[in-house]
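Supplementary Note 3. Input sequence used for the single-chain structure prediction.
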Amino acid sequence: MKRMFVPWARMRLGLLLGAMACLASVSDASAQEEAIPDSVAADVSAGSTEAAGEATFMAAPDAPAEAAEEAAEAEPELEVDWTLNAGGAINTGNTRSWNVNAGSDVLLVKQDHRLTLGALFNFGRADIAPTDDTVPYTTVARQFFFNSRYDYFFTDKDAVWGGLSYRWDPLAGFRAQLLANAGYLRAFVKTDKHYFAGRIGYSYTFENYLQPPSALFDNSNIHGLLAALDYENRLNEHVEFLSSIVTIYNLNKVEVQNATAFQDIRIYFTAALLSHLTDKLAFEARFLMLYDRIPPGPDLVKVDTTTLFSLVYTFM
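The predicted structure, written as discrete structure tokens, is reproduced below.
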């Protein structure tokens, strides 16, 4: 009996020690897992373990950079067209005269916004008695024009607009003529090559006369109804045609000209034909017609016209 008891006792003792060792190892592993903070997680992949924060950072895509690039691409660009023009003419012989003109035009377009700016100066002198050396040259042209207009398209073809214009034309009787107008615009045709629109609105005109028609008034304040048509045609990549006609009917009585409502009608017409010689250089022929039904002076005619030929250089 004793010989059989001793081995069995040893076997039971070994089993008991083995069970205690397993329990101890399981408890130790649980304690280690509880000791790991939440910020660190075991990422076992192909035998590697990474911290949770590091794994998340490495896996994060470059979403902000890509979104910024997409937003930059979606943002409409500002289109700028800036030109300078200059020209002149010289006549000798039976006709002795010279003339110079210069100007600049700017077009800014960004999505639904369109701004146009333009300035033109014209000056000329002539010898009205070429066979008489004692008669000096006489100034036959002295004009400055400035025009600006802003259009905001709230639909594809409907817009509100406002404009400011200034005219200095002493030979036509104006020391200063200032126009401010605004209204509604409807684009009948609006494509890359053709633009045809009609405008209607209110116009205010301030005029200061070089030689007042009336001894009592040097200035006039005219409230008017404006109607206009604008047409642009890109005939091809080398030729452009631009034109505009504006008609203003006075709504109030103009004391200086003794004109009742709708009697002092003004018409401003301009047309320009551009032929591009290179990407930067073009030749322009421009025609201006200014009509005043009741001129500011008894010795002044109703219609003034100016025809200009210029070279146009495109900066942008």
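The longest strand covers residues 174-190. The first helix runs from residue 2 to 35.
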